[in-house]
Amino acid sequence: SVEDRGTFSFDTGRLTWTRHGSWLLPFHGEAYFVRELDAWVGLCSHQKGYIAVCNVISPDDGLCECPTWTTVKDRVYNNRWKRYLAASLTYMGDAEFCLLETITRKGYDIFTESRTRMLLRLATFRVERQHSGEVRAVDMRTMLYKCPHWEMECSRSPTAFWI
Q1: What is d(CA 67, CA 23) in angstroms, rounded to the nearest whole number?
Q2: What is the pLDDT of residues 9-23, one digit of tens each?
Q3: Is 131 left (phi over 0), alpha (psi -120 to 50) or beta?
Q4: Is the residue at 22 inside a domain?
Q5: For residue 163, with 0-12 CB atoms within 10 Å meaning exposed, 13-18 middle and 19 or more buried, which class applies?
Q6: Quick one: pLDDT at residue 68?
Q7: Does residue 107 lie within any of the structural domains?
Q8: In angstroms, what CA-CA distances link 47 with 78, 107, 134?
Q9: Which of 10, 26, 52, 160 has the least CB density, counted as fewest CB within 10 Å?
Q10: Domain enclosing residue 41, as ranges
């Protein structure tokens, strides 16, 4: 999805783009296809702190309505903290995810100090659809790590990859 342009898909076989509509998908950043849910999953752009789960559209659909989507019932991070900086999501397969979140340590201000002491919160969880149809983040495990002095630019966007 591209702001003010709409949502497109790219056919890697034909090397062509297809425009699906002027609507935007409900994700902040990258989203991932989760086979077990037959849906795209990513950080929600409408309700910060939550995961969005969006029905998949076919690249052959052409112009169509925005697909239905929902948020998981569980908040997975808290961007309302004054100390919150950024979060990113990495897909690990089998509907399992890793969320990285950077926050400042108590007593540090990113706007007045060039080297801010940071904390990295790492959370792993599985996204699953309940019998009721509700989508939940389950089996969540979290760890909090102290980070070395980082320059402000380095700490803004935590990134992980899964091999």
Answers
A1: 9
A2: 888 888 988 888 889
A3: alpha
A4: yes
A5: exposed
A6: 92
A7: yes
A8: 11, 28, 17
A9: 10
A10: 7-155
| 68 belongs to a structural domain | yes
Domain annotation covers residue 105 = yes
Q: What total number of domains does the chain contain?
A: 1
How many CB atoms sit inside 10 A of residue 71's CB?
Answer: 17
Which residue in 139, 162, 158 sits closest to 150, CA to CA? 158
Nearest Cα residue to 132 out of 76, 75, 70, 67 = 70
pLDDT digits (tens, 9 = 90+) for 70-96: 999 988 887 665 666 788 999 999 999
Q: What percent of the chain has pLDDT above 90?
A: 36
- In contact, 128 and 134? CB cutoff 8 Å: no
d(CA 26, CA 82): 24
Rounded Cα distance between 154 and 31, Å, is 23
pLDDT in tens, 111-163: 555 556 678 889 999 999 999 989 999 999 999 888 766 554 455 566 666 65
Residue 108 vs residue 39, higher pLDDT: 39
Strand partners, 155: none
User: What count of other Cβ atoms lies within 10 Å of the Cβ of residue 68?
Assistant: 9
Segment 40-59 shows an average pLDDT of 90
Specify burial of residue 103 (Cβ count, 10 A radius: 0-12, 13-18, 19+).
buried
